[in-house]
Design goal:
By secondary structure, this protein is mostly beta strands. The chain has one domain (about 5-205). The protein is built from no helices and 11 strands. The chain has strands spanning about 5-20, 20-35, 45-60, 70-85, 95-115, 115-125, 125-130, 145-150, 155-165, 170-185, 190-205.
Length: about 210
């Protein structure tokens, strides 16, 4: 069964570079209303949160307006709760959850475009711990069901494309497009594709930290 829809979310990020090492982190939370793409199978409300932390070695210029490449690892944690509303006369509901923490390679490319700057970051899970109950959440089922998995059953790719106006200013404007493709092969397999488009402000706290 496939569902799709739109919603709103909030994103907060921080990055810092020192001695050739680059640390990036972000936290995202949002709510979406989903409808079935294959007929009247009810509707869903999705609430999900996502936290990412990357530690990478930088190669190239330190200035944000020059080209530079960085590679390293990313730790990511995600938790999603989906409330499904059925089409029966009572409009009964069930809530399902899925959460995971993954570790895998990450790469970042930053480059200047005139006075502006752009960046592309890609990451992919290599190993993960997954919580994916096969039944709806009940009051007596509050404990997670953790399972260690590898890229053979849990795989995907995450990407962030950002464009920053006048990055050398203390306060600048940033437009960001993010996407995530995830596939989890289990007794009840999960396929998920997420896209986000956001605009915000970027504040330079120091000469290297943002």
């Amino acid at each position: 069964m496939q569902f799709g829809g739109r919603g709103a979310e909030a994103i907060l990020g921080f990055d810092h570079s020192i001695r050739g090492l680059c640390f990036l982190s972000s936290a995202r939370g949002g709510r979406r209303t989903l409808s079935s793409t294959a007929g009247s199978s009810g509707s869903e409300q999705l609430i999900d949160t996502d936290v990412r932390m990357s530690l990478m070695k930088s190669f190239g210029a330190r200035s944000v307006s020059r080209s530079a490449f960085a590679a390293g690892v990313e730790l990511r944690a995600n938790l999603a709760a989906t409330t499904h509303t059925y089409t029966d006369p009572l409009r009964s509901t069930s809530t399902f959850r899925m959460g995971y923490a993954s570790l895998g390679p990450s790469a970042l490319w930053r480059f200047g475009i005139g006075r502006d700057a752009a960046s592309i970051q890609l990451s992919s899970p290599l190993i993960a711990v997954v919580d994916h109950p096969y039944a709806p959440i009940w009051a007596s089922d509050a404990m997670p069901h953790l399972r260690g998995v590898s890229a053979t059953s849990f795989r995907g790719v995450n990407g962030i494309i950002a464009y920053t106006l006048a990055p050398n200013r203390r306060v600048s404007t940033v437009a960001t497009y993010g996407f995530s493709v995830m596939r989890y092969d289990d007794v009840r397999p999960v396929r998920a594709v997420t896209q986000t488009l956001s605009a915000g402000m970027r504040v330079r706290l120091s000469s290297t930290g943002r």
